[in-house]
Amino acid sequence: MPAPTPHSPLHSDGDRMTDYLDTLFSLTGRTAVVTGGSSGIGKGIAHALAHAGASVVIVARGEERVTATVRELTDAGC
Questions:
Q1: Any residues with CB less than 8 A from the CB of 33 and at least 6 apart, and which?
Q2: Separation of alpha carbons 67 and 75, rounded Å
Q3: Distance between CA atoms of residues 30 and 57, nearest Å
């Protein structure tokens, strides 16, 4: 892998690196369905996907926990 130069996307000056990574990994405009998304690993994945820009559908057995997770994501601006 070549060394980053001041003008390459791998050089982290200012927000260029963030913009570059957003371009590579953004999930904006995508929909993710997370089973078991109200607790544990599923909840963590739901949070990560939502923070990456995806619209997240949470499927789980406990309505109260699903509602609480949706509230957490909404309060976080997702």
A1: 56, 57, 59
A2: 12
A3: 11
Is residue 70 within 8 A of residue 46, CB to CB? The reply is no
Q: Which two tokens stand for residue 28?
A: 């904006």
pLDDT at 60: 96
Q: Tell me: the pLDDT tens digits for 51-65?
A: 999 999 999 999 999
CA 12 to CA 17: how far, in whole Å? 5
Distance CA 58, CA 60 (A): 7
Q: What is the pLDDT of residues 12-44, one digit of tens each?
A: 555 787 888 888 888 999 999 999 999 999 999
Q: Which of 77, 4, 5, 16 is nearest to 47 (CA)?
A: 77
